Structures are given as structure tokens and as C-alpha cells.
């Protein structure tokens, strides 16, 4: 019985991991290619959630799940072109300050527009319910989140591995100077990567809006975890981030089972452990320009 | 020439924090009475702080429209208290630079304690409008600190009476989830005493970190433990998250909680809001002054006030009424006046007064219970309310802590 229950917590942890995955992947992509630690990534997640709440009454949740990430990706386009693009080659501290400022502006704007109180938003009726597998219980909606996450991960992986676009991006991560020497400008690729990354964050926000409190601080709350996932997974490693997200979810589930007050702390302890044993993260690649 | 900043050592320290805030020019106290409002505007208590600010603003406007305090206009200053360290620094700045007549606000028990220490040293009145911890009225009490917010004992006995009537306590097993910080620990202690005294047993108990947003591991634990009732002693926006995910997992155990604010029920939304909870006041209270407040707040903020708004509004009215009756803004005189048992209209059926022993406002409370989704008319009226607790024939102290439970000695 106890073993079965622990197994149930492990599987549930994998579902929790899927929540972090979409955000962490984008964060990792922007950092790998642009060298920018995007502290505003959580803000795009929050904006995605609020757009979903605002748009759902008119276009439905099904519509919002498409439109909200697209709108946020367009916002990402504007911000990348006007602001981020000035900082790719500069001191990393500058882009850190810029994105930190952006995150604060976004949080305060959401507070001014929608108020500080949580905005009510529920799972649409057609997605509600639970799935029982023997003794185990799953929320139908979380399984859908998992499915969406798996689709996005597969899509992103194919994009990076199987397309000309992906080849340039991967080359850009490893050696931007060589890419430039071959006469390829990374700028449009960087714009596209930022749009994809913030779009994924907004998609995560959209998916999480019905099951978590929609408040201006939701972005800051999730961002820390996304960072931990990226650090554990290792820089530049696609599957590292995927594995780390799942491990973090499982560790949280097991900590909640064994010693609840350490539910959050367990994840940070895991990060410390990984950094001690493998400073580049679980699957981190050696990237010359960051050494 | 008005003096902008007097460079004292303490002032310089506080001034460091002041660089970030909008500089406000300090006039002498002669033409206005300044009241410093200090409460969390960001973080997990920020949603409640917004109601506090709106309500305090409304109260100041009404006080000024009625002639102000001793013929002088009230001028409100607002700050985000952030955390205990910042709260302490900002309280000091209010007193030393802005020369406020008193400080109103706070929600976080640890920050309220920090402000309490500052006002005790500076001999300035502070009315705590949102921190519930019994310790603030007991071991950590201060002579210059008063409480319009209810204490945890009052919250526990109010919701406790309601769930006792629903048959959820005697001989039942409970599973308690508690926010892992000062407020939660204090609440858990008081809750366990009540539940134990009334014959309930423990099926499970977890302390939950305040940053936690995903409760699914705990929902699985609840499902495995099969308690008769789930006791949710979480804090702030966490309650909203918990209620949403509890509905998501379709768990059916009855829920009750001992710490609550109506904004959290509104945030969870119709269908997700479940269970029985205590509130110090709610917008459906049917007395003339309560209805007038609700209407005025609605007109100003576009939504009904919640209990945090009530508390700040009431505190402001207590201050104005006391200072007008005394014809003085002297803090020590106001403290003595309140300790003598001055009565106030607190927007409930019976008048309230501050208990001299621990400075807690003695007043009625309400237990609210979620309405079934098909009975909900709009996004705000999503609960039904008990009659005022304690009942009309009981002493207002019936639900408050006893001298044995909570000892306050007012350190000098």
C-alpha cells in the first residue's frame, strides 16, 4: 500500500514537472543563444494567464489557448527588437538589469489593470473531471497539460534537430562567430527564438490559469523554479532541462510525502547537490564562450 | 521654508529606504493630521493590502467631509510594508520625518510585531488592522498597539462553533494543512486546542511552505488519509490555490478553515469555493452603517469591500472619533481613552470596544459557508453567513482568548 502510494506521488510529480518544463525550456533557449538571463520570463507567463482570463469570455478557453501565446509572442517580438537585441554582446549584468526591470514593470502593470486580488478563473466544464487508474487518481486537466507539454517538447525538438532553422540555432549556441563567418546573421534567429520561448511561457500561463491563483506575482513565483530546473538540467542541454523538470517534480512530491515543511527546500537542496557533483548540470554541455 | 529632511543618524538610515519612495514634502503638523498607512501591497498578502488602501482612503475622505479631526484635515500617507525589516524602517520614517499622528495597517504578524516595537519606543499609536496572531495580544503585546483585526482565538471559535453544529468535530478525524510561519503556527496551536477540547482526533497534520503553489502531493495525501474534515490553515493567496486544486481533484471531504479573507473566496471563484470559514466582517452584513460602507466602497472601487477593507475603515473611524472626543491627537491620551472602554460603531449589530487587558477589539464575528454553485447569483455573493457570533445574549468576550490562555503584561 505504502509503495503504491509512493509510486502515485512519483507519477504525480512527473505531472508537476510538466508545468515547469515549458517555461524552463524557453529560459534555457534564450540564455544559450543570446547569453541573456531573462528575468522577465515569468512575466510573460503571468501575462499569458491574464490574457486567457480576459479573452476567455469572448473566444472561449479553446480560443485563448491559441491566441494568448500568439499575442505574447508578438509582445516578445517587440521587446526583443527594441530592447533585448541591444544587449546580446554586452556585459551580462546589463541584460540582467533590463529584464529585471521589465519583470517589475509587467507585474506592476498587471496590478494596475487587473488589481492585486486573485482573478477568479476555473477549469472549463468540458475539461473537468478525474481519471481513475486502479487506486490512482489523476485530474483530467493535468493529463491534458502533460499532453500539451509533450507535444511542445516534441515539436521544439524536431524544430531544433530536423530543420535548417534548428541547425543554425544550434550552431549559434556553440559558436556564434563561426556562424557569422559563414555569412549567416543570427539576429532573425534570435528574434524567432525569443518569440518561441515567451510564447511557450505564455502557453504555460494559459494552461495553469485555471488551477493556480491568477495574481500579479504568479510570474515571479514560477520563475525561481524554472531557473532551478535549468541549472539542474545543464546549460544548452535540451534533454537535460526535460529530465530536470521531471526530477524536480518528483522530488517535490516525495518531499511532500516524507517531510512536508521541506517541500520547497528539497528542490534547492537537490540543486546544491547537482552543482557540487556536476557544476555544468546533469547534461550540461561545454559551451566555449561561457567558460 | 519647509524642512524637507533633518539629518539625524536614524533619519539617514531610514532615508536610504526613502530614496526609493516618492519624496513627500513634510509640512508642519499644524494644518493637517497625518496618518501613516503601512501594509503589504505586494507578495502573497498584496491582494488584501489593496482593499486596505482603498478603504483607508475612503475613510479619510469621509472624515474630512465631516470636518476632519479637531477641525484639521486628515492627510493619508501610504507605503508597502514588504517585510518586517522594511516595515520597521518605514514606521520609523513615518514617525521621525513625516511626524504622523498614528500608524494604521499591516497584515503580516511578524511585520506587525516589528511596527509594535517602533511605536512603543516612539510612543505613537498603531492600530493593527490585519495581523491575527494571538502572540501580538499576549507575549508580544505593546501598550501603543491596538487591534481591530480579530485574534486567532476568535477566528477559531467562530468557525469552530459553526462546524461543531454541522457535526464535523465531535468524534471526527481531521487533517490539518498549516502555513509554515508565525501566523500558521499560532493558528494551529489555537485550533488544536479547540478541536481537542471538543473531541476531534488527528488523521494527519502537515506544515506547508508559504511559497508552495501546487498542492497536488498534499491532495493525494488527503485522499489516502480519508479524514472526516479537512482543516485548511493556509495563508493569503495560497488558500485560493488550494481551493481551486481541491475542486480539480474532485475530493469530497468537508473543508473548514480558521483563517480567511473573503477576497480569497472571490479569487477561487464560484464552484471552487467550498467549506466553512470565519470572517471578521463581510459585505452582506445587514446594519445601516455596514450597508452605507459597502455602497460607498462599491461606488469607489467597483467591487464590494472585503473584511480587510472593513478593518482599515474601522480603524480610521476609531482614530477620528477618539481624537475628536478628546480634542487632542496625543497618542498617550488616545491609548488611555481606548483602554477606558470607549464604544465604537463597528458596522455590526453591537458596538465594539477595546479590551484594556490586551487591546483586542471586542466585537461580533461571522462564519461563512460556500453556497452550492446553482444558488450563486453573482461573483461576490458566493456564501451564506451565520448570525453574529457570539449571540446577542452572550458577552462579546465569549469567543476571545482568556487571561489564562494568553497573558499580556505590556512591557514598558
UniProtKB/TrEMBL annotation, chain A:
<dbReference type="InterPro" id="IPR052157">
    <property type="entry name" value="BCAA_transport_permease"/>
</dbReference>
<dbReference type="InterPro" id="IPR001851">
    <property type="entry name" value="ABC_transp_permease"/>
</dbReference>
<protein>
    <submittedName>
        <fullName>Branched-chain amino acid ABC transporter permease</fullName>
    </submittedName>
</protein>
<feature type="transmembrane region" description="Helical">
    <location>
        <begin position="59"/>
        <end position="79"/>
    </location>
</feature>
<feature type="transmembrane region" description="Helical">
    <location>
        <begin position="254"/>
        <end position="277"/>
    </location>
</feature>
<comment type="similarity">
    <text>Belongs to the binding-protein-dependent transport system permease family. LivHM subfamily.</text>
</comment>
<keyword id="KW-0812">Transmembrane</keyword>
<feature type="transmembrane region" description="Helical">
    <location>
        <begin position="141"/>
        <end position="160"/>
    </location>
</feature>
<keyword id="KW-1003">Cell membrane</keyword>
<keyword id="KW-0813">Transport</keyword>
<feature type="transmembrane region" description="Helical">
    <location>
        <begin position="223"/>
        <end position="248"/>
    </location>
</feature>
<feature type="transmembrane region" description="Helical">
    <location>
        <begin position="189"/>
        <end position="211"/>
    </location>
</feature>
<keyword id="KW-1133">Transmembrane helix</keyword>
<feature type="transmembrane region" description="Helical">
    <location>
        <begin position="20"/>
        <end position="47"/>
    </location>
</feature>
<feature type="transmembrane region" description="Helical">
    <location>
        <begin position="86"/>
        <end position="106"/>
    </location>
</feature>
<dbReference type="Pfam" id="PF02653">
    <property type="entry name" value="BPD_transp_2"/>
</dbReference>
<keyword id="KW-0472">Membrane</keyword>
<keyword id="KW-0029">Amino-acid transport</keyword>
Automatic annotation (TrEMBL), chain B:
<keyword id="KW-0813">Transport</keyword>
<dbReference type="InterPro" id="IPR028081">
    <property type="entry name" value="Leu-bd"/>
</dbReference>
<dbReference type="InterPro" id="IPR028082">
    <property type="entry name" value="Peripla_BP_I"/>
</dbReference>
<protein>
    <submittedName>
        <fullName>ABC transporter substrate-binding protein</fullName>
    </submittedName>
</protein>
<keyword id="KW-0732">Signal</keyword>
<dbReference type="InterPro" id="IPR051010">
    <property type="entry name" value="BCAA_transport"/>
</dbReference>
<dbReference type="Pfam" id="PF13458">
    <property type="entry name" value="Peripla_BP_6"/>
</dbReference>
<comment type="similarity">
    <text>Belongs to the leucine-binding protein family.</text>
</comment>
<feature type="domain" description="Leucine-binding protein">
    <location>
        <begin position="33"/>
        <end position="368"/>
    </location>
</feature>
<keyword id="KW-0029">Amino-acid transport</keyword>
